[in-house]
Specification:
The complex is a heterotetramer, with two copies of chain A (454 residues) and two copies of chain B (529 residues). Chain A is an alpha/beta fold and 454 residues long. Chain A folds into three domains: 24-157, Rossmann fold (3-Layer(aba) Sandwich), CATH 3.40.50; 168-280, 3-Layer(aba) Sandwich (Rossmann fold); 302-444, Rossmann fold, CATH 3.40.50.1980. Chain A is built from 17 helices and 14 strands. In chain A, strands 12-11-10-13-14 form a five-stranded parallel beta sheet, sandwiched between helices. In chain A, strands 3-2-4-5 form a four-stranded parallel beta sheet, with helices on both faces. Chain B has a domain at 52-194: Nitrogenase molybdenum iron protein domain (Rossmann fold, 3-Layer(aba) Sandwich). Chain B has 21 helices and 14 strands. In chain B, strands 1-12-11-10-13-14 form a six-stranded mixed beta sheet, sandwiched between helices. The longest helix of chain B is centred in the middle third of the chain and has 29 residues, at 304-332. In chain B, 60% of the residues are buried. Classes of the chains: A alpha/beta (454), B alpha/beta (529).
């Protein structure tokens, strides 16, 4: 397994081996699926759209519907304007969405298609909408694409009428539907009236009903996006996935924002609760305080199994930072913290956490890949790997317990329904981590050390 | 109105006209079952098709385990092709195996602006340093062609500098109309740079190549197991669980067996032209299909002992699976299926379904050409269009040294006339009257046909699997076998039957409707009135 | 590991080896902890109380407070009346509970202590209560003790005033606090006003607050138990744990009851929802329907990993039957279904499930033990074991995946916060089962069969 | 008011009077530090104490791995003693190991009514059939004594019928006032029926028994490792990881080392009386404690080479742990601890805590007698009460054949005078002025003392662990070591230090108070006003 990976350090500047990111458009597609009655549209070769739909479907095990401009060689030479025009007509005709959300690809970006101009040129049916975002695959990652799509929805649609509507905007970042539900549950518990953008709950975790719905019940409505301009405040989760959207709404409509970390773990959820409380001026309800206290209780109870355990965490930057802080709260050492998405802010945020918790010898890297992560692990071992499916080969090669958290998880089920955020998500993550470590202890125990009580 | 008309009628006139040509009411039309295929998908239509890169790197090249395959482009394309296609490959002593790795130049904006050759060269240097491969492939993705990186020159330079084989594939995603263009591009380069270079000693005269077998879920291993049991020597498999060394020796076989016609027919033909080895369309999917195939091969080799052994093996293998197959048939008999997949499987699986008493009422290909539908007899009548003309066609000449014939020419001609070799009849001949054949079946049509035809099972891919299942119809992926397999040969038939049966009989289907949907709320006498 | 267990059949009638039950008093103690401000009291040797507290604490990782009559040899000869009298005085003095709930032990039962008489003889402070139940350890199991304690609370306290209060009584049976919370959430969602008895949520899953509370916030109040007599209907979960309580309330106060199975899995949760709906005459809210549809969706998605997989399930009868039905809903084969608690009703209920789902060759046994279960497994193997901690040795000896569900789980954490009941509990259980089976597939896969996508 | 008075003052007068006698303000009282111990717990008081069965079967007998131990009674008692006490035992060739099994007669109502002997006999027959044990123990639980089952007669009959050893223990839970009675009962039977029967060849004159070491978390293995390294032969361990064969040979040692004085002092004394082997109170908990113990043992054996080797081993072992211990001491120095556990550990662990700079401000035993608190000098002054009189005391005579002295009698007497052997000084001498010693510390007092003394760590058992932790104080179990260990000897000291350190420094403690508890709700300017 991964027999060619050697621990010796080697500086690569050109060859990417076993990436920990993918390209922008899939993130834009995911964001667009979080808008109700929206057709995400991939402006490029039809392979892009196929790959992204396949990939999202593999993670969510639910349909990921999207259309494509189906570029041919001709379009690549002469520009994709007429492809988009045809596409828009057909999409509105056949699939009748409320809105089409176009994202570009490396192809249409490279040839310089002017999407603004194209869209202005298109005859959009009354009451329908068409927006676009630029998602050049050769910049950033899928997280960037997600972020861009959110910002573009706002810059196209949101309007400030001058009358505030008393609502908060929740920008959840690139998280699962289960996380979005939990974020909303907490907001409701704190008496906060909100609009979440995007909101893939009810879309990519939709129930079996015996009837396929092209546009399931979930998602932010276009009307809600328009009304975002009248919101009081944005709570934006994750610098990488949500800051651009919040900034856009601020610039366009003057809505201030509070940039919060994705609330994984205690401190970060506390921060969210306090932000909600500051907004609604409500007492934190006992139920929420109880959940929090339960999580603290659990972390104290399990500390003998987690304390000083070394862990490698990889995945998307906002999520990885959240998991990193949570494992630190559990007394673990996040020895290797890696994202494929580029961005110095990731490294400085991770290092700030190392300092806050006083741990030494940890490495954080943005724009890294799993080949390098594996090299580090070979050089100096760890007790646990946390990340998406692509870590499974390393886990097997090095015989290290592995838990799946984040994106993408394409070899397991049900994860997308379950939150990692909030105190409840903390309980789930704590259980996954503790079980993985305890299962390993049981597996490796000599027969005479195999414990009935733990 | 017919079902086809019902579906089409909802389209605007332009789309109607286009899509009408892609649908055939089998043997119930005025058009002699003619179908439009291998043409552009209309923009905006939710197609299941992929791109040229997917056909080249994903389908044909991906399984070659000892070629270190660098995808030159932004990261996504390499990422998606990483470990997801289930072309299985065993690690063997002395043969590299890079199947667990994804290599990319991860092009960044400056590379697009200033050109990516420099980064590609550096990536090759790093790959050589770290992995010491004997072969490197370079596959380009969309922007590479547009910015004019000369990957072929880079490949040549690398061959020289590192003393390795380095082959470039200009398989940008926008080429052609589907994965099909990519197959062709891959075929060309392998023919040019690989086949014929080997000098491995072939021990048996019953030496075959297996073409168009990518070992998804281990299919190739099951096929090979059966062939070896009978006494064949498998010289090379294109390209499941293959090494470059295997492929180099393909010219030494005495027959090429073509499983997936669409993806590999170029090589099959060129091998014959250059080396004299005929090809035979085979089908190892389905028990009867496998048996017929085995008998056809024996007929070609025309050896008494081999023919006898063929029958012994068939009888033995059937004996081992008969009970299971009978059981599953008892569970599946009378069910109906729709199949939409790839470029050959939509045909092959009809045989296996037939073995199980399941009738196929709708079938279509994602990237098939007219010959996969109507048979190779239509080849002369297919007019190349702008998209197909853009894909290079190469011609080859007989190789004076390596050209060899297993059978005398007149025998070969006879077999050709019998359509035993160098022929594929397409799907149409095996479809019943009144069933439907639809090319490039798109999402809208899928929904509509499922609603109208109500098949018990929809065989397709991951993108529409859950569309079908949300509407209450079992869907099994025939690209990835839903991570099961093998489905080929004798043992595979049982696996397939088991998987379909469990899907049909999964108790959860009975829970789709919540019971309170049937009972009025105000029933009953208890409660807080 | 368990080297002396041989597969050959052997009829034992006297020797119990590796039991799958424990004795009545611990069940009574658990039930009493589900009453607010209640001191469970063990009338017997102080070892009983110590063992039971230890055992409950190991499962819940939370304090399990209870007192004891601290029998000595003298008390065993002369009767425990004066011990109980002293105990009652000291308990009210020192710990100031609202109510003392006494349960007997094999010791006090064998000597024939008349608890009714003792209690009548005790000077109970104004506004305080003292109840008892008989829990002879040599009959039934901990489930019987639980059931008896619940019935005794009712027979001592509940009164019908003639004015119905519009409430339902929920008797959850011997389940975790996490299950009780989920049962209550569903009742609330269906608009049902209820009292749950007992209710250990908020007691044995109490939050860390920095302050130990002898009587945490949770538990049914005495006032609520008294008012049970005015309820409209009892929904009693599980024949073994809850029928006695429901029957007692019916007999004493005329409250009719609906005996439901513990709602593990789809059908059983449906049954609960329909019962709630029949009570409140409310439409099932979309949220609940959505959860249900999600679970159905999940079961269909995962069927290739669960279908026809053989599983052994052991533990408490009501819970085991619930898990059995759920695994059948998942297409699995509950090859061995065993409880240590005696009772033919268990076997007939299990066999009815085998028939309902048309599975052959499955064995159900009540009053069995883990030695016998292990023998069966050796005789004819299975793919998965589901049960409490005590199954871990079998799992290791036979190298079979093992998931912990039910009672007791004394070698893992967090489980007691998480439901198995309801559609949400089904998702959790489905995830545990699927992950266990898929982890095993990954572990056993040849390198060339190790899958990235599953 | 003193802390003790503060706590006691909340009791009613009867309880006050009783409990006052169990509490000592060390060296700050008019009572010469006298304490009440080994007396009844008042009914209704939430005590942590267990019962006689727990002390006999759970503590002393449980670890004997090759005795098939049938608990005669209803199911609970056997169930709770199954695999939960962490007396580890290795499986060895030729020695049975039943530690993973729980055996019970699971008495049912008819057995109580009509007597359980019949079922017990049958259970023995089944155990013999299925397990072929060489030794069976029968332990009775509460109802057995009351209904009059004669388990001793059953045991005798079984010995005869099956040619095995079968020993019965009448350890009904109601006997005595705590686990202590059970220790005594187990001691008596092992002395009667086991010790002295062996004839294993002893190779070294430096032959010792380790008494009162149950190998919780592997403590015994660490102790044995150190002793063997120096050159001692361990003849038997009572009873951690022991076999009946080991115990049979205990009379062949030249010194008995007593770790847990309370649970095994009966055997220690009886071995000396019958076989002439003196006993020495040792303490392998704590680095300094271990060193002192090793030097004391060497002093007894009085051999130059052994003494030298002792110092070499000590120096080497210290070298290996010095850095770790220094690190942990730097983290723990100045912390305070309360300890409430067992019958010896509350004393032993004060040494280890002292090694780490942690001072013990409260200590007490669950089932200790006055000698564990005040030293064996108080033994003549302890008046037996009704409860203790009920526990059989046996007397033994010197065994003419097997009696042997390692040292001349005058030497032994000298060592006795020096209190090196046959002596235990109890906890009091090692406690600082103004600290507290509390016997049978109950829940109420635990809460009160924790509130008032605010120790950083409370060492106790599972039942009050979470009581302490809920109030924000780290609690580590000293019965089970929280499933860690070993804690004995040199390596164990590091394990202990690590475990305590991680508990103290666990970040989650800092989250106990929700941050919004500190900030007023209406702060801030944002929000939907």
């Amino acid at each position: 397994m991964l027999d060619y990976t050697k621990k010796e350090k080697y500086d690569r500047t050109a060859l990417r081996v076993n990436p920990a990111k993918t390209c922008q458009p899939v993130g834009a597609m995911y964001a667009a699926l979080g808008v109700h009655e929206c057709m995400p549209h991939s402006h490029g070769s039809q392979g892009c759209c196929a790959f992204h739909r396949m990939f999202l479907t593999r993670h969510f095990k639910d349909p990921a519907m999207a259309s494509t401009s189906s570029f041919t060689e001709g379009a690549s030479v002469f520009g994709g304007g007429s492809n988009l025009k045809t596409a828009a007509k057909n999409i509105f005709d056949i699939y009748n969405p409320k809105i089409i959300a176009v994202h570009t690809t490396c192809l249409s970006e490279t040839i310089g298609d002017d999407l603004n101009a194209f869209i202005q040129d298109i005859d959009i049916p009354e009451g329908k909408y068409m927006v676009h975002t630029n998602t050049p695959s050769y910049k950033g990652s899928h997280i960037t694409g997600f972020s861009n799509m959110v910002a573009s929805f706002i810059s196209y649609l949101s309007v400030s009428s001058g009358n505030k509507n008393g609502k908060a905007v929740l920008m959840p970042g690139f998280v699962n539907p289960g996380d979005m539900r939990e974020l909303k549950r907490l907001a409701t518990a704190l008496g906060v009236s909100y609009t979440m953008l995007p909101d893939t709950s009810g879309v990519l975790d939709s129930p079996m009903t015996g009837k396929f719905e092209m546009y399931p019940k979930g998602g932010t409505t276009v009307e809600e996006i328009i009304a975002l301009g009248n919101s009081e405040l944005t709570l934006a989760f994750g610098k990488f996935a949500s800051e651009a959207g919040a900034e856009t709404l601020k610039k366009k409509c003057g809505v201030p924002y509070n940039l919060l970390p994705i609330p994984i773990g205690i401190s970060r959820t506390d921060e969210y609760i306090i932000a909600l409380q500051a907004f609604s001026k409500t007492e934190v309800p006992y139920d929420i305080e109880e959940e929090r206290g339960q999580l603290v209780d659990i972390l104290i109870d399990i500390h003998p199994y987690t304390y000083n355990k070394k862990v490698a965490i990889f995945g998307d930057p906002d999520t990885v930072l959240g998991i990193t802080e949570f494992v630190l709260e559990m007394g673990m050492i996040p020895k290797y913290v890696l994202t494929g998405t580029p961005g110095d802010a990731f490294v400085s945020a991770a290092e700030a956490l190392f300092t806050k918790f006083g741990v030494d010898g940890c490495i954080a890297k943005a724009g890294g890949d799993l080949y390098e992560l594996h090299q580090w692990i070979k050089e100096d071992g760890i007790d646990l790997i946390i990340g998406g499916t692509h870590g499974k080969h390393i886990a097997r090669a090095e015989d290290i317990p592995f838990i799946r958290a984040g994106f993408p998880i394409i070899d397991r089920y049900i994860h997308s329904y379950m939150p990692l955020v909030g105190y409840k998500g903390g309980m789930r993550l704590a259980e996954m981590i503790t079980n993985a470590l305890m299962d390993r202890q049981d597996r490796d125990a000599l027969e005479e050390d195999f414990e009935m009580v733990m | 109105m017919s079902v086809l008309e019902n579906v089409l009628d909802q389209y605007s006139s332009r789309v109607y006209k286009n899509r009408k040509e892609h649908m055939v009411d089998v043997n119930n039309n005025e058009n002699n079952n003619q179908i439009a295929a291998n043409v552009r998908t209309i923009p905006g239509i939710i197609t299941q098709r992929g791109c040229c890169y997917a056909g080249c790197k994903g389908v044909v090249l991906g399984p070659i385990k000892d070629a270190l395959q660098i995808v030159h482009g932004p990261i996504g394309c390499s990422y998606y092709a990483w470990g997801t296609r289930r072309h299985k490959g065993k690690t063997e002593e002395g043969v590299d195996n890079y199947l667990q790795y994804s290599f990319s130049t991860d092009m960044q904006e400056p590379d697009i602006v200033f050109g990516g050759e420099k980064k590609l060269k550096k990536a090759i240097a790093e790959a050589v340093d770290l992995f010491h491969p004997s072969t490197i492939f370079i596959c380009s993705t969309c922007p590479v062609g547009l910015i004019g990186d000369d990957i072929h020159a880079v490949a040549k330079a690398a061959e020289k500098e590192y003393g390795i084989k380095c082959i470039a594939y200009s398989c940008e995603g926008y080429k052609g109309v589907s994965q099909s263009a990519g197959h062709h591009i891959a075929n060309n380069q392998i023919m040019r740079y690989v086949i014929g270079e080997g000098d491995r000693e072939i021990k048996s005269k019953f030496a075959v190549n297996i073409l168009g077998e990518y070992n998804i879920g281990g299919d190739g291993w099951e096929t090979e197991r059966i062939l070896k049991r009978i006494g064949y020597e498998v010289v090379s498999t294109f390209t499941g669980d293959s090494s470059i060394e295997d492929l180099k020796n393909a010219h030494k076989a005495n027959l090429s067996l073509v499983q997936c016609h669409r993806s590999i027919n170029y090589i099959a033909e060129m091998i014959e032209e250059r080396y004299g080895i005929p090809w035979m369309k085979v089908n190892f999917i389905g028990v009867q299909g496998t048996i017929e195939t085995l008998r056809n091969i024996a007929k070609y080799f025309n050896d008494e002992e081999l023919t006898a052994k063929t029958e012994v093996v068939i009888a033995d293998e059937i004996g081992l699976i008969a009970d299971d197959m009978a059981y599953y048939k008892s569970k599946l008999k009378g069910k109906t299926a729709a199949i939409y997949v790839g470029g050959s499987r939509a045909h092959h699986y009809q045989f296996l379904l037939h073995d199980l008493g399941v009738s196929t009422i709708l079938a279509g290909y994602e990237f098939g050409h007219r010959d996969e539908y109507e048979g190779r007899e239509v080849l002369p009548f297919i007019k190349p269009d702008a998209d197909s003309k853009n894909i290079e066609s190469i011609t080859v000449e007989p190789d004076k040294e390596k050209y060899h014939l297993y059978l005398p020419e007149e025998e070969i001609n006879k077999l050709k006339e019998e359509k035993l070799i160098d022929y594929y009849g397409g799907m149409i001949k095996d479809m019943a009257n009144g069933t439907y054949m639809v090319d490039d079946l798109n999402h809208f049509e899928t929904e509509e046909f499922l609603k109208r035809l109500k098949p018990d099972i929809f065989f397709s891919g991951i993108k529409d699997k859950f569309v079908a299942q949300k509407s209450g119809i079992l869907s099994r992926q025939l690209h990835s076998y839903d991570y099961s397999g093998p489905y080929s040969g004798f043992r595979g038939a049982v696996n397939f039957a088991r998987d379909v049966t469990m899907g049909i009989y999964t108790p959860a289907w009975s829970f789709v409707k919540a019971p309170w949907k049937n009972t009025p709320v105000l029933e009953g006498t208890l409660g807080g009135e």
